[in-house]
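$ fold --in a.seq
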Amino acid sequence: MDRSAPERNDPSALRWLIEHELRAAREQAGHTQSAAARVLDCAHAKINYLEQGKNQQRPDEVVRLLRSYGADPVDVDRLSSLASAADRGTWWAPFADVVPDWLRTFVGLEGLASASFAYEPLLLHGLLQTRAYATALLADALRVRVVDVERVVALRLARQQRLHDPVRPLHYEAVIEETILDPSSAAPR
């Protein structure tokens, strides 16, 4: 395996995936959070936090819960593996101060994805933007402070590296409007 490519596993995205699958497995089994708490010999609140991704889901706890729910052993192994990977640092940690909360899970899930599709009617998607385009776009943006523009641009360029990852490249398809490529084509004739 080529270790030069950054690891794209993201703790917040992994916790999000695990929380959803834990809750779904519990509900499918017909168990309450109180019953799940008895399995781990913990407070009801802990189960609630595990299912909201507020607490780190430990692999051994994930295994015990899923087995008590009668989950498929393949799912138990998969989620246990995800839980063990969820305690690693995120690839975008150097940009954490400029990544808004609403974007963190998305960027994390993008790092886990094998494919992505985007439809952008007005702008080039961040994965297609050049440094100059992104800088010009963000220069007067209300959501990005002027002092943070270069770091946000650097984050976009770092996200693009996934497209060229030698081990797990992101299969990316985008549909863009012609006016994005040639603004003069939008002019009335």
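$ fold --in b.seq
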Amino acid sequence: MRLIGHGLALAFIFLVTCTAWMVLGGVTSQRSTEQQFALRGEVSSLWGESLHVSPPTLTFRWATQEAHTEVTKDATGVDVQKRVTETVWHDAARPSASARVLVDMTQDVRRKGLVWFPLYGVDFAGTWTYTHDRDEPGWLSITWPFPSREAFYDGFALTIDGVEQKDIFGASAPEGGQPNGVSTQIPVTPGQTVEIGLRWKSRGSTSFSFTPAANVGEVRDFKLDLTTDFTDIDFPDGTLSPTTSTPSGSGVKLGWAFDRVLTGKGIGMIVPCPVQPGELASSMAFSAPISLGLFMVWLVVLGLLKGIEVHPVNHAFLAAAFFGFHLLFGYTADRLPVEAAFALSSVVSVFLVVTYLVRVVSPRFAVIEAGLAQVVYLVGFALAHFWDGVTGLTLTVIGLCTLFALMQLTSKVRWAEVFARGTLARAET
């Protein structure tokens, strides 16, 4: 009966602590969400949003003379046929003959409270050539839409054969509104080759992408080099993989090259972001019951094996020390670097457990049996949350190792006598 009573008391302590963790995780998640929504507009106004860049649109415009018959009535009301010739304008979308694009991205992540914002600077320079392979002379219209009307474009220049174009904004503006891009047009003759240049600098957040062709289009003699100052490379969904990758300073230089391809996919880069303190604190709190459960089982079994009584009241204080780790981390992660907040919380929690068990049991039990177990179950398992996809594997390894240790330690235990007497009896070897 004594073991059953202790078991029920431990279960109650475990459930109360789990409830506290669920509340803490929910509060931390809500704080993180509120900060993210409150600051997103401010950050977007200062740094802009994700930039999705398109190449200049080329449209050939030419005129033909078309004759048709018009029927009118003379003064007497008699139908009169007259042959009339009028000018008719035609438009046709045209592909570029080649494209060379250079993109330089620099990471500039910023943290506000519990939220990291993945910001970046971008330096864009592109050159497109157009060869007029039609028999008709006419006009080539060149239009480039702004990736975002909220962003700024420092050092912007649109050049034709090396000459910077002027008065390029009014043509792209809707009636009574702000310009959506830039536009210009030049005369072209059969066989003429035109070089179109575009360069600017801007800032954005989260990701950058460039679409070689509008919708699904033909891309000829295309080459894009994207240089970063970071090495944690990730691409947006639905984008093309690079054809080359080489180290470049503190980052990497990626290359995309195509001779002739039909595609509607883009080329992009996701800016790496440190682990979000709010999400990390919530995830650690929600999974903390696993750590406490393993720790409590470990102490109960060791207590039975060594004849040491760790009363449920002692377990309650130990559970509070475990909970203190996540409570302290949740309220320091928005004021300290995440690594410093984690180290501080770990030291404080382990200190509470070890110094308490030194007085309750013994220094050796506190440091070796309990202290090392807390480092593994609490600190080690919490540390695994810093890496995506590692948490489940870490839990599996810790759980299996604990199972192996408990099976070996209790292989000689006479469990019938343990539950009958409430004391440990080992089989004679």
